[in-house]
Write a structure and sequence with these properties.
Length: 145
Amino acid sequence: GRLAASYDGRCLWGTEDDCLRREPALVIANSVWADARYALRSNYENAVGGYLLRADFLDAGAGGLVNDWVDRFTDGLIDSIIEEGPIADYSLLAINSVYLDAPWNEPFKDAFTNEDLFYADDAELKDASSATEADFTHTIGPIEE
């Protein structure tokens, strides 16, 4: 897989150990995984170039290789996208990942932040922080026409 873009989140103000403001970190990565048991047309192989990764999709470690790639390029936030083990149902996988670590322009206010359940999918619930803040126009007292 090849990195399409990367900005490292370097410290803009302070020291690395005590940084008060960081540049956003951004990593965009792409890969095309091809089952090593099959030949690719040379013009396709040339087109995907440095994005091409080969693995024997019937090997017990094939799913782990793909998941390790995703884990690395998302800084561990996504540790798997495919089941571990052989990935025999596929002959080609195109994977893109985007990792962004940046501060909010308007940070969440602690008073409006709470822990709640997040439905990652139909089978998985996770605890996650969420925030609710609403501005609404209201009047106290009689409304004058």
